[in-house]
Amino acid sequence: MDVPANEGFDFQPHDLVPEKAREQISDKVSYELRPAKGPDGSIADGLYNAWITLNNPTQFNSYTTDMVKSVILAFRAASNARDVNAVVFTAAGDKAFCTGGNTKEYAEYYAGRPQEYRQYMRLFNDMVSAILGCDKPVICRVNGMRIGGGQEIGMACDFSVAQDLARFGQAGPKHGSAPVGGSTDFLPVMIGCEQAMVSGVLCEPFSAHKACRMGILTDIVPALKVDGEFIANPMVETARMTDEWGRIIHGEPKTGDELAAGKAQMAKGEVDLSRLDEKVEELCTKLLMTFPDCTTKTVEELRKPKLQAWNANKENSRAWLSLNMMTEARAGFRAFNEGDKEHGREVDFIALRQSLAMGARWTGRFTNSLMPGAEK
Questions:
Q1: Contact 186, 156 (CB under 8 A)
Q2: 214 and 139, same structural domain?
Q3: Would the pTM of this model clear 0.90, i.e. be above it?
Q4: Are β-strands 84-91 and 138-142 bridged in parallel, bridged antiparallel, or unpaired?
Q5: Can you give the C-alpha Rg of the chain in angstroms?
Q6: How far is Cα 307 from Cα 294, in angstroms, rounded to an integer?
Q7: What CA–CA distances, in Å, run from 308 to 184, 189, 200, 288, 301?
Q8: In which element (H, E) is residue 210 found?
Q9: How many CA atoms lie within 13 A of 56 on its CB side?
Q10: CATH classification at residue 301
Q11: What sign does the CA torsion over 283, 71, 21, 136 have?
Q12: Alpha-helix runs per DSSP H in 226-371
């Protein structure tokens, strides 16, 4: 194709990160340009999809402070790159996309330090805003569970494609926080107020099949291979059906003998994410076959319900989360970090409520008394 040459034309650099440094943004966040492909599978010379990958699998790809900064820089680089078609936001491994903030760092550094956490939350806010403000369509490749803050940064993306063993949900009120890093803004817009309440308050994880039914996924693909064949998640009801009360049970956990059979199939199988990669690549190609500026404008307009809610609340939420590090967050994150299988990873909620009802103060001794396994 005859394309006008730009000989002698020097582009003005608008990047915060030098081009040569992008691929080494950090050891726990990678930035990679992968060739874009046309509908026939051929490589579109000179065009790419930017893959931003969280790489902290031993901690379920939870993000540390340094990782948050790296994600901001990576999205800024992808947004400005003239040769980038779309951004794929994903993570290493097949267990987790992201489970939110790094609870070890929260418990050992930020707990009890509200001013430090306020600065951290400025970075977190900027990370969400970097996703919502990216000049390229953003696809969340959900390679595993997307929980807590991971659900929030995932919902900030424009599209989400998941492997169907993944689980979704919030964790805040169970672990000393509130899902005000995006979920209280995005969930009512995306799934309605009632289901947003169920997810945000009760913190009960749900399947990828249910997430797709609720409207927070573009698509799902099987990831479990048994005897060389892909099968749907055997732990949940994947048939489109209702129970005797007329309630939809598609995507709900199996019970009894069916659950036992599902566990047996899980034990026999292996996880293969090749279908996920194919589906993400297919979506990238669909985006490639559009006018770029028209696509950007459309994406910007369709983001507005999420963006308006986010911008209206993020600073108030930041302030509340910071102060909460002196009370419930201090207890909740410590409990998760210090707990174990024997004693669990949650505080004694009944003792907490009983003590507060009697006027207890948030002292160090009181916090210690709430830890899993603490002597009463």
A1: yes
A2: yes
A3: yes
A4: parallel
A5: 22
A6: 19
A7: 12, 11, 19, 28, 11
A8: helix 208-214
A9: 24
A10: 3.90.226.10
A11: positive
A12: 256-268, 274-288, 292-324, 328-338, 349-357, 364-369
Residue 281: CB atoms within 10 Å = 16
Residue 332: is it exposed, middle or buried by C-beta count within 10 angstroms (0-12/13-18/19+)?
A: buried
pLDDT tens track for 61-83? 999 999 999 999 999 999 999 99
Same domain, 278 and 360: no
CA–CA separation, 121 vs 178, rounded Å? 13
Write down the residue that tokens 């926080």 correspond to. 177
Q: Are residues 214 and 347 in the same domain?
A: no
Pick from 125, 141, 176: nearest CA to 61: 141
Residue 216 domain flag: yes
Q: Are 51 and 86 contacting, i.e. CB atoms less than 8 angstroms apart?
A: no
Nearest Cα neighbor of 220 from 170, 160, 168, 262 is 160
Q: Are strands 229-231 and 224-226 parallel, antiparallel or unpaired?
A: antiparallel
At residue 44, φ and ψ (nearest 5 deg) are -90, 100
> Are 224 and 231 within 8 A, CB to CB?
yes
Are residues 238 and 211 in contact, defined by beta-carbon separation less than 8 angstroms?
A: no
Q: Which of 84, 94, 33, 89 is nearest to 63 (CA)?
A: 89
pLDDT tens by residue, 145-181: 999 999 999 999 999 999 999 999 999 999 999 999 9
3-class DSSP assignment, residue 244: coil
